Give the backbone structure.
Amino acid sequence: MKKKYLLIATFLVANWGLYAQEFKKNDLFNFTKITKFITDISDVQKTAINQAIEKRKENLKNIKNPEDRKIHNKEYNRALLHILTEEQETKLFGASIKTEKLKEFTKKEANSKFDNFPVDYKQILLQKLENFNYQIQLIEKKFPFDFQEMQVRKQEIKTAKRNFVQSEMNEIKKVLFFTQKKENDCTQLTKQQSSLYRDYHFYLLKDKIKYKPELTTIINNKGFKNLKKKLTNCGVTKKIENTKIISKQDSITQAKIITQLQKEIKSKIDNTIDRLESLDINYRDIDAFLISKTIINKQKVNRAKRKEEDAEKSFYEKAQKAGLNNNKTERLLELIKERNEALTNYKQSQKQEHQTALFSLTETSEIKKPFIIKKEFAQKLNDLLTYKEYISFVGQEFRKKSLNQAKKETKEIIGNKELSEEQIKELHKLIYLYHFNQNISKSYYAHDKQLLKQKLGVLTYRFEKEYQKLAKELELQPSQNSKKIDNRTFQWN
């Protein structure tokens, strides 16, 4: 019965313009007025209505008591309703309902209680509330002479109306609580994003199949795409907060980890939306630590690879700068590879022998020791490259060390003596070139200690000769480490 009332009321609210003429209370006793509002009345019904009208007239003759008149009016009222169908009743009594006033009353009654509902659904609620109010007024019109019956039926509708509103409010309260929780967890949500989040979950709670079109509209909203981004970022933030290893990485590694976390969480959100499920997602199955370790290890491999590539590029640049031909360059690469492999083999053998040789009385390993490997490499390098080529190739590696040595020694030699900038530069350059060639020589002649001593002796003699000449010009005290320059007495090694 209630559903039928709702359907009739919905039909009438949409077609109220057809009933511009009002049907009054006393028109109930006028056959012409009744048939004017009910055009689809049958002949049988017409006869029955006329008989009911005549019966009322006959019963009211000579009756002066108002209560007796009410009784006969009530009997007629019931007889008329018994004759008419529900649709005919609605046409007849609905004609006297003021539609604009009904709308205004409903809007005022709703006030702001529906503001938190989705906009489209809010209109549905107002329409349903309006239908309830229409039914109440319709009951008042249908039972003008039966107050008791009117009150009973009105109360039924009011109870249904109250239960309907309460049920809807309980549902929106759940969604509002849910949304507030998400706003607290994800403070970056804008007002629009919170509304979309609320509307999405409201329709899920109602019936995701029935309201799939509304959910689809929300999902396709541009603001919803931004909502997904914010939810993704919030998920990433939580994962970062709970994974300490991330904060210890450099900015590039952190960025890669964050990008991967965003990808994983976004995928989970997209899958959830495809299934029309709640966006309050549990991200426990996304292992941020494992993701971080995987990326960190990958970064280490990439860096090692880039370092190797940079080293190879630098090697060829140095070879070109040193003027090495292709044969010398490739042979140099072979020597370096042989040395590196020999050192690696030694390290591996050390690890293996450590376990077996703990209680051994002899050392039987045939693996070359590092100092032998390095000595042989230096010998082969010396045979392959000239001293000048070697300087061009590795000179930059000794530059910083030589500059620091020269800076310190220059400062000690000058002391409190006042020299011009040009004089200081001249002295510093002399000392720097000495240390630079000394360091290069120690590396280039490392395979032959006797030859190294000879080379260093010649280098020191030439330096002392030039240094003492310059010191005399600059009126500097000889250095404590200076040697007397005499071909017969100079210590060459």
